[in-house]
Each structure stands twice: as C-alpha cells, then as structure tokens.
Structure prediction request, 342 residues.
Amino acid sequence: MKFKFLIFSILLSLNLLNAQEGLPVYHDYLTGGWYFVHPSMAGAAHHNQIRLTGRTQWLDVEDAPSTLTASINGRVTKNVGLGLIAYRDQNGNFSDNGAYGTFAYHLNLSARETELNQLSFGMSFGIIQNVLDETSFSSTIVALDPLLTGTSSIDNYVNSDFGVSYLNKNFFALFSLKNAFKFFAKDIPQLEPDNLRRYVFTTGYTFNINTPVKFKMEPSIQYISTPELAQEFIDFNGKGYLDINTDLTLWGGVSYRRAFDAIEYRTNSNTIQEFTYKSITGFGGALYKDYVIAYTFTNQLGGIPISNLGFHQITLGYNFGGDSRAYEGSRRWDCDCPVGKF
Prediction:
C-alpha cells in the first residue's frame, strides 16, 4: 500500500505541475487543430473553427483527472486572426480554470493570394484560477506531506503565450513560448515554481499519395520543454487522410510520446528505481461537410500505471466561413493540404 501511494503521489505531483502551467498540452492538436497549442494558428486554416473537447483518464479511479475545453478561432480581416479558449482542468481536489484571448497576424509571402506561403505571429493573454481544496483530507494524509495544510487555497493570475509559425503548402513549422509572463502565487507559493515557461515546437509535412482514392500521409514531431521542472517530451506522429467524397473525409493515426529523463523513486523495499514516461496514442475522426468528430485514446507504456483504462478524449467541431474571405470573396487557400481543408 505504501508503494502504491508513493507512485500515486509522483503522478499526482506531475499532474498538479502540468495543470499550473496553464492549458495542458495533450494530443488535441492532432484532432482539434493546432490552435490548441500555438496562438499563431488563430485564423490560419482555410475554415474558421469551433472546437469542444472532453478528456478523462483512469475511469475506474475516483476523482481522476479530466479536462474540458471550448475554443473558437478565425480570420477577421485580410491579415488578422482572433481566437478564444476556455478550459477547466480538474485533478481530484485541484482545479485549474482559465480563458485565453488570442491575436494573430498573418503575412502571405506568395505573389498569389490563395497560394499558401504564410508567416504568422500570435499572442494569447489568459486569466487563470487555481483552486486547491484540502478540506476533505484526513489528518493522516495531511501529516504525510508537509506541503498540505488541510485548508482551501485560491490563486488568480494572468498569463501569456507567444508564437510564430511558417506554412508553405504542405510543410509546417510552429513554435510557441507558453507561460511567458513570470507570476507569483499568493495562497500556495510552495507549489508554484518561479518560472513556468514552456517551449513547444511542431513540424511536419503532408504527402499526397497517388492512388485511385485521394489519400494523404502526414508525419510530424512535437517537442515540449519545461526547463524549470526539468521536463522534456517528444511526440512522433503519423496521420493519414482519406477523402471518401466531396462531403466526407476520414482521418486517423498514431502518436508515441516519450520523456527524455527518468524519474527516480524509492520502492517499498527501500531500493531506488527509475520511471520514464512513455505513452502510445491512437486517434481517428471524420469531417462531414462542416462538422468534425474525433476520438483519442492514450495508454501509458511501462512503469506502474494507476489504471489500465487509459485516457479518453472526444472532440466535436464545426467549420464555417471557409469558402470566402470577408475582404475578397475567394477561397482562402488553393491547396490540397490539411490547413487548406481543416
């Protein structure tokens, strides 16, 4: 029992720290769009987008972590994109609620307005509230951890993200600095690192496969680094698109995430072991006319998982305003690439 509690404490601490970094970086960008991660992508796609996601994990564990998000982004003028994200990240007695507003500016480097060769810059500013409710903790649990007080703490703060992206037909490279502003918690300073900056880099290419049907393959990688927490992760992604007809496109793929460094922990037999986070994610979805639905499943590899039921996420979406631009009345992008369709 002591050993299981220790493992749970390690994973719980990781979730707490990730939650306090703002909107967590899961695999939303593979099913709901890059705007979830990169502010420079607000209004960058062919369509304006509305996305709703619901994520839960460890279905057989009481008060397991869950995340809800709602977002909208689109192009409002020739060069300006706007976006809004609201989310709630719940992890047992800890909750993280926030909303981000985004401004993006897009520069088309091509001589043709509908040819995708775009450099974009974006910034997001958010208001976040952290709530840590320890009132239901027993005195035994509080005594086990010097960071626990047995009371309820609330912290409100302002945060910001900045990003830049480059899209050239089927090639994309995206970089974002998350949590750029330094902030200091008042009620729970012992859980709040001084610097929560996180760096995210995504790049990939979409290959059009010449087959009897329209099929595309999109390999990509994403690198995530949080220096203050000495955390580094990399995602290796493979994604495919199949056009059934003019109204229906199916897509799916797989993603492998791995941490660069191992976490040391002490077992019940007083030996030191290492745990390196690894996970595999499968996802699939459909675009029917302007409606999007997708499902994502993530399973931890190796280590000692708290549950074998993994992580589940549903994404619902609606695309609008893609067939014309408010300033010109023509298609935004004339290319057979995901950013031109999704």
